[in-house]
Structure formats: C-alpha cells, structure tokens
Fold each of these.
Amino acid sequence: MTVFKVKNMKNILIKAKESKKFIQSKTSILPQLAIIFGSGLSSEDLFDEIDISIPYSEIPNFPVSTVENHKGELIIGKKNGKGIYIFSGRFHYYEGYSAREVTFPVRVLSLMNTKFLILTNAAGGINPDFNAGDIILIKDHINMIPDNPLRGKESIDFGPRFPDMSKAYNPQFRKQIKEIAQRQSYNLKEGVYLAFQGPSLETPAEYTMIYRMGGDLIGMSTVLETIAAVQGGIKVGGFSMVSNECYPPERIKETTHQDVVKTVKKSEPVLMNLLGRWIDEYL
Ligand code: HPA
C-alpha cells in the first residue's frame, strides 16, 4: 500500500517535470501569474499579445477536461509586457479525478516558479446579500470535498506537509482588488467559498446546512487548487461568479448548467476589467 503511494506521488513529480519541459519549450515567456478560469469563462481579451495556445490534450500527462463549456487549453501571452498563463478550463473531483490529479496543473506551475495564481469559478450564492450576476471576492474556504491533494507523505516533494492556511487567499491581493473595485464604483463583496464534491446541485436542506456551516458561496472546485498552491508557496486570489441564489429556500429556482454558464458570461467583462487593472497596477 505504502509502496504504491510512494510510486504514485513520485510519478506526479516526474510527470509534472515533463509537462513543464514541454510548456517551456513552446514559449520564451516565463509568466509570474497564472489564471484558472472555470465554467463559461475564457477571456483571451485579457491579453495584448498571445504567444501560443496549447490544447491540454497536447501537453504530456495533462488530464482531459470532460465538462461542457470548458475549453481545455493553456494560453500563454502578455498584458502590458507581463507574462500570463491562462488555463481555460479546469479539472474537477466530480469528473472522477483525485485531488492530486485535479491539482496537477498547479504542481506544474510550482515547478515553473509561478508566483501568483488567480482562481475563478461559478458558484451558488448562499449569503442572502448575494445576487445572481454578482462577482464575489473569495476571502476564505471550507473544503468539504472528501479528498486533499496533499494526502500521502510524498506530497512533501512540493512543500511542507502541514502548510499554514490562515492566509490562504492573499490578504494583500484582496486589499488591492477591493481598492480597484471601489475606484470603479463596483460594490465588490467578499465571502467564504464552501466546496462540495457535486456534480448534483444541492437540495434546499443542503443549502440551509451550508449557510449554517458558514459558507457564503457553494461550488465544486477551487479549494483543492488553493491547497496545492499554498503548499507550493504560490499566492492565491479567488473570485466566484454567483450564478444562482440558494438561500433562504424561497430564493431557489430550478437551475441547469446552461443557466449557470449564461449568468456567468454576463459578469465576465466586469471581472476582466478588475483583473486587467490589477495586472497593470500590481503585477
Ligand atoms: N451548487 C454547487 N455548485 C454550483 C452551484 C450550486 O448551486 N451553482 C454554480 N455552481
């Protein structure tokens, strides 16, 4: 059992090195920032200059995204002379991947010495102050996905065994982005993102439980990537796009994945504006 695990994790380190080598052979840009976009979001608009788009299927060892509206490509380019990796589409636990597999791209980023990771997702709004279409800055998370990317002692290949999570969502980034939003007269609220494994959406009773547990947002991603990034010393910023209102139960409407994507698309320009300004001013 232990032998299997050692082999497994060593494989991830070796695989991540191969992916790194491939990606770095395709571009001369060495970005400090990576952005992982979730459901429906893409945004090549963020770039002034695209160097290369690489489908995940071409990157050695990359998992394949199986979700509709997740494009599955890595775009490398520049904004204002600053290099950026954009991962258009991510991997989820509910697709059948383990937490280690879900966070594989973050492991590759660690090896490429990326300094900052911005994670975005679509989420249900639990906080009664949140409305569909709102962009919420993530201030903290609760991991209810029954897995952790650091499980198994071999994860120390990537950082400490017990990384501190008291400032998982970088406080300086939060301060900077709130200041930018204020200047733009955008009322940027903050919230705690709670992750369930999905892929079914939650029942009204579950949404009520999430509220009582202290979640402001409910989704199926992000927390595992944050854990792997924090372990690897990468600073994290996170945004949720509220796609449906979940609490109190009177606010719940029937929701499809298409509804989620449509609502998220509408708030995309505001998010891109905030991110673009942050890159210009602070990266
Ligand atoms: N629950 C879980 N994940 C989600 C939701 C939801 O209501 N909406 C968007 N992603």
Amino acid sequence: MAVVTIAMVPSASPEQSRAWCAQLEAGDILYFPKSPVPLSKDDASFLLGQQQTDSSLHKNIAYKPNIDRLSGFDAKAASPAAVERLRDAMRRYSQSVAAFLTEFLAPYQANWQLDYASFRPQEEQGRDLTLRRRNDLLHTDAFPTRPTHGSRILRFFSNVHPARTRDWVVSDPFAEMVRQFAPGRIAPDPGNALSRAGKAAARAVGLGAAIPSLKRSPYDDFMMRFHNFLKEDPQWQAHCPKYAFQFPPGSSWMVYTDTVPHAVLAGQYALEQTFLVRPQAMVRPEVSPLRILEEMARSRLA
Ligand code: SIN
Ligand code: FE
C-alpha cells in the first residue's frame, strides 16, 4: 500500500485518470496536500463553530444529496437558521467534490452513485463509542443499513481543522489480507440472503424498508461480518502491519475504505463525501472484494 501525493492537480489525460482509478482499487491513498475543493472562508468559520453535544446518538452529521437533507445533528440545540446554514455548506462541499471527481476519475463517471456526505466535528481521540462503532480500531467499511450489492465504497476526506492534523493508521488491503481469515475463520455464505420469495413476502407485508438487513446480498452480509470480525480480533489489531499518516490542515485524501483497513486516532473537523462505484466500472476487477469472495465461494454473491 502507498500514499500517492498529488501536489498539483493537472488536467488529466484519460490514461492518467485510469491509472489513478487502478491505484485506488489496489489499495493506495491518493493524497492532496492542498485540497482541490477548498472551503470558502465563510463556510470554514461556520463549520468550526459547530460542536455536537450528544455524541452517543450519532457518530457524525450526514448530508443526503439525493433529498438535500441533513441528519444526525442535535435538532433540539440547533436553530432552524443554523440548520439551513449547515445544509448550505454541506451541499456546496458535496457538489464541489462531485464536480472535481467527475473529471479526475473520469472512468467511473457513468457508474457511480453519489452517496452521503458527512461532517465530523468531534475530537476523535478518546471518543466513547461501543466496540463496533469505534473508528480508532482498524476496520474495513460496510454500511449496516445501506447494502451496496457489490458496489465499492470510495471516500473523499478533507481535514478542515485550521491547525491540527487528522491522524490515521491503515493496513494492507483486502486482496492481500483476507485469506489470513477466509474461508477458515469467516466465510462468504452464498445462502445467507433472503430468497427471492422471502423478499417478495417481506415487501408484501411492508418489511423490506423497515428491516434493512433483509435487503442485504450475501456480499453485503460478508462485508458487514468482516467489519465486525476485524474490530473484534485483538490479536490482529495488535500485530497487523500498520502505516501511520498525519493529514495536515487543508489537505484532502481519497481511498476505498471497504478494502483498506483504516482507523482514525486523533483529529477534529473533517468533511467527507462517499461514492458507491459499480462493479462494472472497476479497472482492476481482479482485486475487488466481490470478485475475490465470489471465487472463494464459487458462487455469485450479489
Ligand atoms: C472512518 O471512516 O472509519 C473514520 C475516518 C475519519 O473520520 O477520519
Ligand atoms: Fe471507516
């Protein structure tokens, strides 16, 4: 795994864009010392004035671009004007990242879905979260309530703290590490999804939306179990290869967090935009978790 520093963002040739996609898919982090999506002074000073009070309820504040809505903030403590202001700032961030990556990662363009953005106003060091929600333990990402059905989770982060670094540790990517564990200790289970008939029945009684796990594919089932498995393995947490990075104020970076184990140890005030990239857009499908797990299971998983 490597950190690829992109000091100046050139206007990319198709070959260069493909090379960046390939590096991301192989588990590299693309790092921009100077963010290509800088915040305006107004947005920065507004965001730095925000601090969530009830940290146990929601880890972060989410912005959902498809419905232009926020969730996860302390509604009782916020004035409607402040909520509106926060939504404006997050909408601008979300749109700027999408505009930048549409060109920068051109091969993905037609095959990604703009997912949620998040604002992370809390100090990460010493957060009091239950084990499976802790982000200071190395993990690969999987969404408990939003199965991706084989799409990859690509995240673009910005450290918007005016002075402090955001301190990460990462480990070797999925394709290099998964066989230590699978299929011996944890295995993809092609049968572990609701049958088509079961899904239809669940929809008929209105359960499909109420119980999101019903909509998980066997792929999502494995990725969710693997997230928990890594956090719950103290041996691996202690002894796996670790690479530390401190992302400075004003920088951005991007990584496939579904395959690069990562943890945040310290830092405050980050913005993040998630993209779900469809399997058919992969320029190196052989290192994608879907392909690796399907070969292991000798079966379709999504
Ligand atoms: C995570 O995705 O686990 C947290 C990363 C961060 O907030 O820096
Ligand atoms: Fe994560």
